[in-house]
């Protein structure tokens, strides 16, 4: 019997984790009866009753496994660590505890996987959120997919069912800040997309703050595109050309109209000084993001530090 692993990261989701567990369990009792279930909950050091609820569930169901982190490492690292701990023949990389990505698509994902597709990814064709955030996300993903080294449709998130081969390929990538939604396509394989509606959260508030979203978006751009560096090079060339042209124009105007080369252009020089200073600081900051990424890789820290694992098989002890 093949095993399907489902990875659910959580942080202060006491109102949602039981609903998430029940939704997955019912699917395996009805539409996925021919498969074994492994549901991994990765707790990011929740401060509410999330862990207590999960322990109650795990005590009654050995198919539920829990990884408890020592602190909050963020959703990307937390989820990736859970995927690396999974043992299934196929792995649903991310099922949010709030069920904004619909678990009822899992049977369809499994059928497509059985048909030979190694990566079955969900496409967020419709988003139940405000117009501003929807527009920002759409623009970001179009930039990300346009300048990446491989093709990926806009609207693809971590809601993907991937074959064990893909998971093992991901394991070979040494990345201290993994961006899984792109990593799977980087590993390669037969892929197919399924459009769906990304639903609004029904219970509680999202723990993914705006600053965290910004950090994750920068990580995606730095890790999988050369767009920022190429943009800085192109903008640098354009500004240099405009500066030379503007200098020649001022030289000609000063000689022909004013018979001098100083006073008429003083304000322009002041404005240009502040403008180019701001441009330089912007691109220095962009280079800093790449340096921070390199710094994180060189330090070689684990993706997360774990406090405990529940319902996992005990590790093999070395022979004396």
In helices, the fraction of residues equals 40-55%
CATH architecture annotation name of the largest domain: Alpha-Beta Complex
Please report the number of helical segments.
10
Along the chain, the helix and strand elements come as EHEHEHEHEHEHHEHHHE
Looking at the structure, what is the overall shape? Answer: elongated
Main sheet characteristics: 8 strands, mixed
Give the total of beta strands: 8
- Radius of gyration from the alpha-carbon trace, in angstroms: 25 Å
Distance between the termini: 35 Å
**Unreliable residue stretches:** none
Supply the CATH superfamily name of the largest domain.
Answer: Spore Coat Polysaccharide Biosynthesis Protein SpsA, Chain A
How confident overall, as mean pLDDT? 82
Enumerate the strands of the largest sheet in spatial order, edge to edge or round the barrel.
7-5-6-4-1-2-3-8
Return the CATH topology of the largest domain: Spore Coat Polysaccharide Biosynthesis Protein SpsA, Chain A
Q: Report the structural category.
A: alpha/beta
Strand proportion, as a percent range, falls in: 15-25%
Tally of discrete structural domains: 2
Under the CATH scheme, which class of the largest domain? Alpha Beta
Properties at a glance:
320 residues, alpha/beta, Spore Coat Polysaccharide Biosynthesis Protein SpsA, Chain A, 2 domains, eight-stranded mixed sheet, 10 helices, elongated
């Amino acid at each position: 019997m093949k095993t399907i692993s489902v990875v659910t990261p959580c942080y202060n989701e006491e109102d949602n984790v039981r609903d998430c567990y029940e939704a997955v369990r019912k699917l395996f009792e009805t539409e996925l009866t021919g498969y074994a279930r492994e549901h991994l909950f990765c707790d990011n050091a929740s401060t509410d009753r999330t862990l207590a609820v999960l322990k109650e569930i795990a005590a009654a169901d050995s198919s539920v496994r829990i990884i408890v982190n020592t602190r909050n490492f963020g959703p990307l690292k937390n989820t990736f660590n859970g995927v690396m701990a999974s043992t299934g023949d196929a792995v649903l990389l991310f099922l949010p505890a709030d069920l904004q990505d619909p678990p009822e698509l899992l049977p369809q994902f499994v059928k497509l996987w059985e048909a030979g597709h190694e990566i079955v990814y969900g496409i967020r064709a419709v988003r139940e959120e405000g117009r501003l955030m929807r527009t920002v996300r759409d623009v970001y993903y179009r930039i990300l997919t346009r300048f990446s080294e491989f093709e990926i449709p806009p609207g693809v998130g971590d809601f993907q069912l991937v074959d064990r081969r893909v998971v093992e390929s991901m394991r070979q990538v040494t990345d201290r800040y993994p961006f899984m939604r792109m990593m799977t396509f980087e590993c390669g394989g037969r892929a197919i997309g399924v459009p769906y509606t990304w639903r609004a959260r029904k219970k509680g508030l999202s723990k993914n703050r705006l600053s965290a979203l910004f950090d994750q978006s920068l990580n995606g751009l730095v890790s999988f595109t050369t767009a920022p560096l190429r943009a800085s090079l192109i903008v640098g060339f354009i500004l240099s050309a405009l500066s030379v042209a503007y200098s020649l124009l001022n030289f000609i105007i000063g000689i022909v109209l004013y018979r001098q080369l100083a006073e008429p252009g003083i304000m322009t020089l002041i404005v240009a000084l502040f403008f180019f200073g701001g441009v330089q600081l912007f691109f220095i900051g962009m280079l800093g993001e790449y340096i921070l990424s390199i710094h994180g890789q060189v330090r070689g820290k684990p993706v997360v530090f774990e406090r405990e694992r529940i319902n996992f098989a005990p590790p093999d002890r070395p022979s004396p």
